[in-house]
Amino acid sequence: MSETEIYAALGEIFRDVFLKDDIELRPELSAKDVAGWDSFKQIDIILAVEEKYRIKLNTRELDSLNNVGDLVRVITAKTGGG
Amino acid sequence: MDERDGELVIDFGRSGNSDAYRRAGWYEPEPRHSWTQGQESTLEFPRPNFPADYSMVLELGPFVWKDTLPAQRLMVFVNGSEVGNFVVREVSALEMGVPWDLIEGREWVEVIFRHPDAAKPVATSGVPDHREIALAFEAVTFFRKVEPLSAPPEAYALSAGDDPEMLPPEQLMMRFESLGENCEFGLAQRRCGAEPLGLLRFASAPLPVLLAGLRGRFEGMGEPQQIDIQISNNHQEYLVVDKCFGFLYHPWVLVGEADPEDIRRREAKRLPFLRRKLIEDLEDASKIFAYRGMHRLPQPLVLRLVAAMRAYGPTTLLWIEQQDGQHPAGTVEWITTGLLKGYIDRFAPAENAHALSLDCWVSICRNALKLGRTPR
Judging by DSSP bridges, how do beta strands B40-46 and B108-114 pair with one another? Predict the structure, then answer.
């Protein structure tokens, strides 16, 4: 799975979680940039990612997520893409 | 008596083990406690074999009624010698020392509780209860006293490049995970910009509840039938009650913002995920877990918590208490392997956890991290 495909899928997840259509995903986008992106929303994002890609993120992977780029890297690594 | 730990825990709940130790002066156990009967109650348990001084901790609540009966006096005798004298006004954990020379001469330890203010609720408050009660015992624990450390114990893992002095507060606070008892520490993390994902970060987790959860590996948390959605006392927000162990936490949803069934469905997804993460964090042992009691906690009870945590992995607890004459605010010290104790200038008021002492929390965390720099 390419990074482009992952960004597209994540865009859908973010729209569902935040109920907003105007979030433009880019690697450096982080919780500071999106109103309401707190730990609750982070869990919703992770759960949706785990369900979509049928993967489980371990605690170190979860704690390493500082921005969208980190999330894409973890998904890529766990799905054997890249 | 568990000879490995030098610990005996008597659980006075209905499914507990107190039948083996209760003698005269007790009513039959109720789901979580047993009431004393009359003005004197007796326990007996085998004397530990290891010659040492011991501590005994009583977890109990008094029968009190407004100005008529504001407190219960309690005197504790071990093998005939007084070891404690208390006035109990609220649910408490009472700690007392039991020197070895008091118990070494007999194979069984006899503990007598005298509670001269026992009263009948029917005569005091009008409640149709004719029993003569004084104190509801939840647990009695008997521990070998902890020896002070002469050298730092094993520490949690830190990567070589970490310097606690240099870490920005956001990164610093991500190295910690709250175990309760309330949400003050979780809010301190939020004020620093740290949003770790934690099962108990915004939970009310009194120690007995937390211990039960840890020992049961939080099994069943998140099953829809175990989630109860309630409305807070001020009628402004929803609260989630976990019926497995009794955790209570904030979903941060105001009344009217969402349907309770929607909250239940959401929690049924979130809780199993957070449970999995907490267990991984306990096993991984790279974070420090923070805990504060709503009341001062006796050290033996905190050691029970450490033991329950370290059944998962070589993890470390940071136990926070209020500063005292010997320990100014910000001080952190090792108590024993796996246990750091930090001292804060003040806790947030119970009714407003947001009014917290942020600088002191950050200082404590920085000092705790500094102490743990020895590679494991």
Answer: antiparallel
Q: Which residue has the tokens 């085998």?
A: B46
pLDDT of res. B3: 43
Strands B176-178 and B54-62: unpaired
**CA A15 to mean position of chain CA atoms:** 11
Summarised one tens digit per residue, pLDDT across range B291-310 is 998 888 888 789 889 988 99
| Nearest one of B89, B83, B15 to B43, comparing CA atoms | B83
Instruction: Give me the residues paired with residue B318 across strands.
Output: B290, B340
Mutate to test the interface with A, among B187, B277, B288 (most CBs of A within 10 A): B277
The pTM for the full model equals 0.76
C-alpha distances out from residue B358 to B103, B186, B192, B362, Å: 46, 11, 9, 6
CA dist list (Å): B242 to A25, B201, B371? 36, 14, 35
List the single best residue of B156, B187, B197 to mutate versus A (max A Cβ within 10 A): B197
Q: B281: helix, coil or strand? A: helix
Contacts of A60 in chain B (CB under 8 A): 284, 286
Do residues B1 and B142 lie in contact, with contact meaning Cβ atoms separated by under 8 Å?
yes
Average pLDDT estimate for B323-347: 94
At residue B178, does pLDDT exceed 90? yes
Q: How far is CA B231 from CA B203, B215, B251, B294, B309, in A?
A: 15, 29, 11, 22, 32
CA A2 vs CA A50, A54, A80, B351: distances in Å? 17, 16, 10, 50
Does the distance separating the beta carbons of A60 and B284 come in below 8 Å?
yes
Model ipTM over 0.85: yes
| Residue B262 structure tokens | 């929607």
Pick from B195, B270, B286: which is nearest to A31 by CB? B195
Coil, strand or helix at B274: helix
Task: Give me the total of CB pairs closer than 8 Å, taking one residue from chain A and one from chain B.
Answer: 36
Of A42, A47, A50, the CB nearest to B195: A42
Local confidence band at B376 (pLDDT 50, 70, 90 cut-offs): very low
Res B227: pLDDT = 95
On whether the CB atoms of residues B250 and B307 are closer than 8 A, the answer is no
Distances (CA, A) of B121 to A30, B74, B117, B128: 59, 18, 12, 7
Are B113 and B24 in contact, with CB atoms under 8 Å apart?
Answer: no
Average pLDDT, chain B: 89
Pairing verdict, β B135-144 and B92-98? unpaired
**Number of other CB atoms surrounding residue B369 within 10 Å:** 24
